[in-house]
Each structure stands twice: as structure tokens, then as C-alpha cells.
Amino acid sequence: MLTHLDAQGRANMVDVTEKAVTAREAVAESRVRMRPETLDMIQSGGHPKGDVFAVARIAGIQAAKRTHELIPLCHPLLLTSVKVELQALPPDQVCITARCRLAGQTGVEMEALTAASVAALTIYDMCKAVDKGMQIEATRLLEKSGGKSGDYRAEEA
Fold it and tell me: Which of 125, 26, 133, 21 is nearest to 81 (CA)?
């Protein structure tokens, strides 16, 4: 049985030594709600700090690669692919979708969730001077495949 607790009930990293190496993938999303004029500024390329989506995409990718440094007890993983897509949803939202893949002994759900979250935080950081009321919401796992626990697909929101 996999657990983060040892025989004495102390937190520790799960030993995945005996787990099979399989192809694993996870997809997560996060949404940022903002004023319509903030979204217009991002889409028009008129933001004084540059391309908000490009910076958020890179931040998400970097975060996925460093998840083990941010989330206690996560394994350091050799990700083979990280994709972060950002889509404007007028009048007032950005949807961030992060997809992480690897061939390994443990899943990549936390990496996908971290990528989506950090991309959302980056949008907030870049736009807070013009819209402090932005809201980061609906961060969730959309799907995962591979591994002993099998596949998962979230119900439509």
C-alpha cells in the first residue's frame, strides 16, 4: 500500500521502487477572471510588461519542472513534455490548460496542477497594477492516464 506515512505515523516520501515504469499524463486547468478591459489589454498586446500569455506559459513550464521543490513529498521527475496553453474567454476570463507527460513510476498530476496555478499567478502578477480584483479560480485536475490507479476524467464543470 502506498502511503505518505511510515510505520511510526511520520510523513515521508512514498517509495516507488517496486512500481512499474509506465507512460503517464495529466491535464489540469485554472481560470483567471478579470475586468473585460484587462482581458482586452492582454489580447491587444498593449500590456506595458509585454506578452502576458508568453510569460505565463514559460512560468507554468518552469513550475512544472520544479514541483518537487514546492510541494512537500513530491518526487523529482524527469518530465518528457510540458505544454501550457492559454485561451482568452471573452468577456472576462483566461483559461489555462497544462499537460505533463513522462514515462515513470509515479504520476504527474501535481506537476500539471502546479503549472496551471503558477501560470495563473503570473497573469495576476503582470496585471495587478491595472486590476487588483482579478480572481484565480477553478483550478482542477481534468484528466490523468497511466499508473496502477488507472485513468481519470473529470466531469464537465
Answer: 26
Kindly tell me if the per-residue pLDDT of 1 is higher than 50: no
pLDDT tens sequence across 32-73: 999 999 999 999 988 888 899 999 999 999 999 999 999 988
Q: Is 111 annotated as a binding residue?
A: yes
pTM above 0.85, yes or no: yes
Catalytic residue among 51, 125, 131, 151: 125
The reply to whether 75 sits in an annotated binding site is yes
**d(Cα 10, Cα 123) in Å, to the nearest integer?**
37
Domain ranges of the chain: 22-145
Dihedral sign, CA of 103, 105, 107, 110? negative
At the top level of CATH, the class of 22-145 is alpha beta
Pairing of strands 22-33, 152-153: unpaired
The reply to whether 125 belongs to the active site is: yes
